[in-house]
Each structure stands twice: as structure tokens, then as C-alpha cells.
Amino acid sequence: MKFALVTASLLLATSVSAQETETAAEEAAETKAAAFTIDTPIADLMADERAKAVVDKHIPGIEAHPAYEQIKGFSLPMVQPFSEGAITDEMLAAIAADLAELG
Q1: Which ranges of the chain would DSSP assign to H, the alpha helix?
Q2: CA–CA separation, 2 and 44 (whole Å)
């Protein structure tokens, strides 16, 4: 009888723990998405479907750029001075606004 009670208690605790873990993972994903800014590394933006769509909307084909492997660890403002005018202040402001709406 004691064994059955212990087993039932463990099963209940495991079930509750799994639900808490799932909820925490969902909240973490939402927080991560909400935390995207133009200061987020480009690779992190491109790794998220929604953030990637924002960047692609304003800077189409950035992943296909020959220097992508070199710049993917940088933020968009860090890359801007090397873009020869291809990334403007207005583009950064629009990307920032769109990323803010993801949250």
C-alpha cells in the first residue's frame, strides 16, 4: 500500500513538473522574441522565423551577402558603417519598430 502511494505521488509530481517545464519553455520563447532589437546579433535575428521576416523585409538577401559569415555575429548598427549606405538610419528605425511589435 505504501508503495502504491509513493508511486502515485511521484507520478503526480512528474506530471506537474512536466507542465511547469512546458510553460516555462513557452514563456522563455515569448521573452526571447520580445527581446529582439537592432542590437541583437544578426545570426540570432536570422535564427528566429519572425525576426528573420522583419530583417528580410527591410534588408532582403542579407544571408546571401558574401560577407554574411563575417558579419553575422554583429548587430545591424555595427554593420551599418560598412554597408556603404545600403543600411540607412531610416531602415534601422523601421526594423527596430517592427521587432518591437513581435512581443
Answers
A1: 2-34, 42-47, 49-58, 68-71, 76-79, 89-101
A2: 51
* Residue entry with cell 519572425: 50
- For the stretch 87-99, pLDDT in tens is 999 999 999 999 9
Q: What is the DSSP letter of 32?
A: H
Are 73 and 79 in contact, with CB atoms under 8 Å apart?
no
Question: Distance (Å, rounded) from C-alpha 78 to C-alpha 94?
Answer: 16
On the 0-12 / 13-18 / 19+ scale of CB atoms within 10 A, 99 is: buried
Question: How many whole angstroms separate alpha carbon 79 and alpha carbon 76?
Answer: 5
Residue 71 has pLDDT above 80, yes or no: yes
- CB-CB contact of 64 with 73 (8 Å): no
